[in-house]
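Usage

Read records sequentially. Each one opens with the input sequence:
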Amino acid sequence: MRKRFKKLGAVCMTAAMCVGLLAGCGGSSDSSDGGKKTVSIWFPAYAGTDAEVSDQEFWEEQLAPLEKEENCEFDVQILPWSNYEEKYLSGVTSGNGPDIGYMSMDMMGDYISKDLLADMDSYFDDAEKDNYIYYDYGTINGKQYALPFIVGNARVLVGNKAIMQQAGITQMPTTWDEFISACQAIQDNCPGVKPFDMALGGAWGNVDENFLPFFWSAGGELTDEDGNVTIDTEEGREAMQFLYDLRFKYNFIDEAATSNDDARPDFEAGKTGFMVLATSNCLNLEGVDWDWTTALAGPDGQAKTFFAADSLVLFDKCEDKELAMKAIKLLSSADVMSKFHQQITEQPPITKDEEYTGDERFKELYTVENDNFKTITPFNSAVSLLTKVNENVQSMMMGEMEPEDVLKNAQDYYNENLASE
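and closes with the structure output:
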């Protein structure tokens, strides 16, 4: 699932994307070893340091039968999360990028705008398309630039059951108003407990928890129907006011949240009532009994939350797209994905023919069509914009910026520095 990428400077991105990306990718080639085709594939690291099988070993083992069948080679590279985007940017601009890549939705916009990704739709028949649960999430501007591959990790509201019981809360809140009432009950009945906590001091990826669920539930959208960034709207400002009030009107959020980069320790220690957390991180909570709800409905009844749709992409400069697509279909097959989910990282199935083997508490969340889910529609410089939003939300919660200025400032920054990239 998408991790928290480091910030990329707008100037660096502009220069590199405009000058270098058009060089394309230099991944696939004829090998000097008997004329074998070589297809390069870049993945992030998912296996733990103590895992029995490394990411490299796993992917190479899965690709070995196709290598033998096609008399080809797959050059698999595992990239660290710490400089994942920078590696892609430098690789592609130098002509040494992959043929097949793994990208989050936020990354793709810049590459799509430069015509660097191929439309994969024609390589799938109707039965294959129907079997992929999240196929349509990869359709961008009418083209299938992405095949959702590692999907899920929805951000959900979790509550400490012991604290809820002490406060007299009998069920998880499902609306903004119910949430305020629940937090008030904790404040009144549980001395020394923070009703709600956030990790506002972390990297830009924290917008998945701190911003997007509230922004979308208020009716906000990152882009309009034409793909133009339009975050400074009445709905967006309403979401910012709600967060501001949680901090300054109701005092539900402690000042420490503004510098905190991980809210889980206090939640596990019984010092926090509620927090928003990725489902995979919920399963790693220790020493605490918790409940959850998917999303809090905003003023108009919408209840939306972020879920990741990290995808496989095919670079347009790949010399043997047919071979690359065979690899993509193999890697995303139920057989390979089932092994990956069991051996490397527990994630929901991406195809209908793979059995769900995850935690039963989230089975319905990921096996029944969920209208609460939203993912980021790719657009130019998405990472840079969301970095700015993250900084502004933190400033607002520190009392250094007014709610109405958070999105206006980010919108102006985007229009002046990023929109033309």
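Summary fields computed downstream for this record:
- The CA atoms of residues 30 and 37 lie 5 Å apart.
- Residues 2-25 have pLDDT under 50 and may be disordered.
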